Amino acid sequence: MLIRLQTILQRTLVRYFPEYRVFIKSDKNFRYFRLKSRVQVIFALIFAATIGWAGIATAILLINSFGIPSSSHKMQTDYALYQKHLKILAEELDVKTHETIQSHNRFDMALNQIAEIQSQLIFKEKQRQELETNLKAIQSSLRETTIERNKARELIATLVNENPNGLEIFDHNAIEDVVSDFMVEALAETAAERDHVKTTAQKRTTELEAEIEFIENRNNEIFRKLEEAIEVSILPLHKMFNNAGLPTDEIIESVRRGYSGQGGPDLTSSVSEKNEQSAIDVVRANHLLERLDLINLYMITANKTPFSFPIDGVYRFTSGFGYRPDPISKVRKMHNGVDFAAAHGTDIVATADGYVKFSGWRTGYGKLVILSHSFGFETWYAHNSKNFVKKGQKVSRGDHIADMGNTGRSTGVHLHYEIRQSGKPINPMIYLKAGNDVF
Questions:
Q1: CA distance 164 to 174
Q2: What is the mean pLDDT of the chain?
Q3: Three-class SS string for the chain?
Q4: 405 and 387 in contact (C-beta within 8 Å)?
Q5: φ and ψ at 273, to 5 degrees?
Q6: Which of 313, 400, 243 is nearest to 90 (CA)?
Q7: What's the gap between Cα 144 and its chain centre?
Q8: Is-contact 399 278, C-beta < 8 A?
Q9: CB under 8 Å, gap of 24 or more: what pairs does 243-251 form?
Q10: Using one digit for the tens of pLDDT, what is the confidence trace for 346-395?
């Protein structure tokens, strides 16, 4: 079989590539060389390879000369847009921070005003009670004077009855006139003093009522502003949890049970039944305290949930969650997280409170940190250049846990960030976008 194939090949070469003679002139003589078919084929292959290589090299040079400037220009444009977007985000963050600080300052001032108003109300209530006490004392003194007057009249009548000839000893009419004059003067003085005290009390009561009405109106305005400020503060927190698709009521109740310690001395106090406005203010104040407690529960829950961003520095989003062509094998595969590229050594921070479940090397992930959080959440930080935490260590949101690197199965410096709940990967961008307005 081999001999037959060789024969066919030789016949083909002889047919299509006949032998050529190459003539070379030297002085007056001619010399020639005979080129066999096999040699001709070899020279033809070498010539074709040279021509093909030259064509490919020329094409590559032309592609590079036309493609690089446009790609560079596009990169510069994208970088400029990125810097502009970063500047806008920074300005928005500064405005939000300034508004938050102002809201806290206004809230503190309002609380101080409420405390001052409550002190003034207590002082006015004490003054009113003192005026009522003085009025009761005057009325009691008037009753005692009237009783003494009646007793004096009874004594005079008794003396007259016991001494029918008392006219020789006493001048009954003169004595009665003296006693009457004394009683009239005493009653006139008591009545004048009573009228003066009553007038003063009424005037002071009117002034106190006007002051109390003013304080109550100002108190209502402060309560209204506080209620509006608290509702405005609760709204973005509630919206953040709803956008993330979390069972807000169940999570808040779980946190409430975990932070339910109570105690203290028994200092029983009651609101006066006569002061209905004070009772209403107490109800409104208690409602405000309940709403403030809800804000605290929201903030505690937010700190335990991965809503904040995992990078402290300038970055670029390079890959999203879901199916994509693998950057190395080019095969379409599931990507369980998101990728952010930045400079080597950029700080990687914890996105929620928790503890370190794993810190070390894992195949494909390189240097990896896994944090465990409340409500079944886990966050994964992969391809790090250096880890700064150890297994079992407690961390808080914003703590520096690693530096960005290029370890493991990676094509460049970046962070691979995952969020898992009950072991199932979920799209981190849902939580990062939901927490954008709050954090």
A1: 16
A2: 76
A3: CHHHHHHHHHHHHHHHCCCEEEEEEECCEEEEEEECHHHHHHHHHHHHHHHHHHHHHHHHHHHHHHHHHHHHHHHHHHHHHHHHHHHHHHHHHHHHHHHHHHHHHHHHHHHHHHHHHHHHHHHHHHHHHHHHHHHHHHHHHHHHHHHHHHHHHHHHHHHHHHCCCHHHHCCHHHHHHHHHHHHHHHHHHHHHHHHHHHHHHHHHHHHHHHHHHHHHHHHHHHHHHHHHHHHHHHHHHHHHHHHCCCCHHHHHHHHHHHCCCCCCCCCCCCCCCCCHHHHHHHHHHHHHHHHHHHHHHHHHHHHHCCCCCCEECCCEEEECCEEEECCCCCCEEEECCEEEECCCCCEEECCCCEEEEEEEEECCCEEEEEEECHHHEEEEEEEEEEECCCCCCEECCCCEEEEEECCCCCCCCEEEEEEEECCEEECHHHHHHHCCCCC
A4: no
A5: -65, -25
A6: 313
A7: 70
A8: no
A9: 243/430, 243/433, 243/434, 244/305, 244/307, 244/430, 244/431, 244/434, 245/430, 246/305, 246/375, 251/301, 251/305, 251/375
A10: 999 999 999 999 999 999 999 999 999 988 899 999 999 999 999 999 99
Of 343, 351, 363, 331, give the one whose Cα is nearest residue 418.
Answer: 351
- Round the CA-based radius of gyration of the chain to a whole number and report it: 50
Angle at 104 between CA 98 and CA 107, to 5 degrees: 140
Whole-number Å distance between alpha carbons of 402 and 149: 97
CA distances from 250 to 241, 305, 376 (A): 11, 14, 13
CA–CA dist 361, 291 (Å, integer): 46
> Which pTM value belongs to this model?
0.49
**What share of the chain in percent tops pLDDT 90?**
21
pLDDT one-digit tens code per residue, 169-214:
445 555 555 555 556 666 666 667 767 776 777 777 777 777 777 7
Q: What are the backbone dihedrals phi and psi of residue 354, each rounded to the nearest 5 degrees, phi first?
A: 170, -155
Single out the residue of 417, 414, 437, 435 nearest to residue 426, CA to CA.
417
pLDDT, one tens digit per residue, over 296-327 is 777 888 788 898 899 998 989 999 998 988 88
